[in-house]
Structure formats: structure tokens, C-alpha cells
Amino acid sequence: MIDFHCHVDLFPSPERAVDEIDRADIYVLSVTNTPKAFPRTAQLSKGRKRIRTALGLHPQLVSERHGEVGLFRRLLSETRYVGEVGLDGGDEHAHNLDLQKDVFDEILAACAKVGGRVMSIHSRHASGEVLEALERRRDAGVAILHWFSGPLTHADKAVDIGAWFSVGLPMLRGKRAASFIKRIPRDRLLTETDAPFASTPGDHYPTTAVKKTLTALSVLWDCDEIETRRQLQANLRTLGGRAEAFKLATD
After folding, report:
1. Which of the residues 33, 45, 224, 230 could staple to 58 if both were Cys, CB 3.0 to 4.6 A apart?
2. Is residue 249 part of a domain?
3. Cα 233–237–240 angle (5° rounding)?
4. Domain count of the chain?
5. Rounded to two decimals, what is the model's pTM?
6. 251 domain residue, yes or no
7. Which tens digit of pLDDT belongs to each residue from 4-21?
8. What is the CATH number of the domain that holds 108?
């Protein structure tokens, strides 16, 4: 099973969450919200073969943390994965959208400079602006739109520029789930939880939610769970292969 967007460091007991992930044999992208959180979060998963730690600067924190962009650049050589990054145009954050755009552009430029990264991207109420930025910097790497909620026409554009998507259980139970999933190539989709947020609050890692997401996707794809699991595993292998081509400081 796969959870390609999870805030492992924000569980009440991150160490216990990591152990639970390990026991459940789940492949996890552990995203961070600030560069300063990255070193400790990466240490949590040290030696865990199924967990990769991403370097992030969450758009909702940009107004208070934009000074960490320099640290982001310095840490970027330590991981092939970036997230959570992007833009948020919601009412609480629209007032600093210009600053968010500047920071996001700097992040994409930094990723391009090191040869590309796999990027888990937030686009709430700003999907058009995110896609414009990605189209300008196609050399930044592989964009994976996390919990995409933009117009379906924007989903079409994202597909056209080569973006991937990660989907969670509430998305797959939503009113537009069927029309959304039909637009996304099966070989560019991964599952996620966004735990410990969204529909998965609680002290423990939500293994059950990952299983239910697989089931819900099988229904929308009109295939059995074995076929769905095989497709998702193939997708992860493809993405992992692309990630391995991105260089680290130790290479």
C-alpha cells in the first residue's frame, strides 16, 4: 500500500507512527512543513526502507517562514523529494499570495538548479497559479498535485504538462470523484492520507484509511483490488526510478 503524502512528524507520537507504518508495509512520503523540521523528520525514518522524507515549505506558513528559503536551498541536496510546497489562495492566505508565488518560484528554480526533484504540491484555491508556475519551470522535476480540488479543466491542463496526482479517501468519496478520476491517466496516480489531518485524525497511523482508499479507487476504476494494487505499485516504481535519476550531494 502507498501513502504519498503524510505528515509523520505531526503525529502525537511520530516514533510510534513510523513503527506502525513499518509493520503495515506501507510506502510513505513523509512531507514537512518547514525546512527547519526536515532534519529531525528525516532522522525519524532513518533505516526505514519504505519511508522517504520530503523537504517542505508549506504555503500557509510562508508569511512567517519565508526567511527559511536559504535553508531550503542548502538542504535540497540531501533529498530527492520536496513537499509540502505550493500555493494557497484561500481566504485566510490570499492576502500574501504574491509572496507565496515568489517563494514557490524560488523553490522551483532551486529544484531545477539541482537537476529536478519529485514534488508534492499544495494548490488549494490556486490551481491555476500553480499550473502556470509549473509550466514555466518544467525542468523542476516531477509535480504531484496533492489533494487536488481545482476545476476539472485545470486537472486536464495538469495532465497535459505531465503532472501526477495523489488522492485521499474524502476525494474519492466526493461528488465529482468519478468525473475527476476518469480524466487522470491510471499510470500517474498515487494514494495518500494527509494524516494526521483530513479524514484521518487520531493518535495512530491510519492504516485502515489507506486500505479504504485502495477499495474506493478500485470501484472508480471498475477493477478488483489486486489490479488496483498492481497499478499503484507500478506507478510507485516508475516514480522511484525517476527520483533515483536526481542527484544528491553524496552521489
Report:
1. 33
2. no
3. 135
4. 1
5. 0.96
6. no
7. 999 999 999 999 999 999
8. 3.20.20.140
